[in-house]
């Protein structure tokens, strides 16, 4: 059974108030594209074509208007409501019917990934037949994240959610490759003191069974989250700098779909025509010429 994708794009976005009072955080602009284009592109780079997007009931119509059913990119998008945010691991309960026993790759809707070799890293994780794979990334402020605690021999001892005294500088990114047991494991979790089903508790379940692999991302990768006004601006400037310097798009589902042969040149031309008045449309036109 083919692995399916999940984008968790729910939550209330309170840390970005007043910006998010009227719009979902994951639909805010990240330089020249909606934020959700970037995590969607990660799943597409991994070769995943069946994707569920978990949103709040209030925001779902905006996501459908922005993304449609995915057919313009040769993929299938399903929308799932999250009535109330109760932890990242809740996503596996909400998506259980959608997954239908398939393994999954979940990415958080406010996470940005970039780096040479990223598709190869993703596809290697896709090939793991059972258990789970997550990625560790070195950060200066690990106390904000789930942190990897290593043994003296470098093996992973535990993953600790927002520790006061971090055991390392490696945070677990918002990208999770888990097998078909994830929904049942999530159902067996007990809510934490803050009333949430913690993703770290779910990962600890795999770690306890010795079926969790933590792959460290090297210095050539960038992982950004956009949970604050400052980090949102930083991520937008990062994307702008890359695109202005290289003349290449970052986080373009249209380019990825065309490169994967999921859409034809004619379909890409139709997409380019929609954006003909800006640089994104001109970039898609250039892809056709090249």
From TrEMBL:
Domain Nucleotidyl transferase positions? 4-239
Quote the InterPro entries the UniProt record gives.
G1P_thy_trans_s, NTP_transferase_dom, Nucleotide-diphossugar_trans
GO function term, MF aspect, one: metal ion binding
What is the E.C. number?
2.7.7.24
> What are the TM regions of this chain, as residue ranges?
none
Q: What class of enzyme is it?
A: transferase
Q: Which key words tag this protein in UniProt?
A: Magnesium, Metal-binding, Nucleotidyltransferase, Transferase
Reactions this protein catalyses: dTTP + alpha-D-glucose 1-phosphate + H(+) = dTDP-alpha-D-glucose + diphosphate
Cofactor(s) required for function per UniProt: Mg(2+)
Instruction: Describe its function.
Output: Catalyzes the formation of dTDP-glucose, from dTTP and glucose 1-phosphate, as well as its pyrophosphorolysis.
Report the family membership: Belongs to the glucose-1-phosphate thymidylyltransferase family.
Q: What is this protein called?
A: Glucose-1-phosphate thymidylyltransferase
The organism named in the record is Erythrobacter insulae
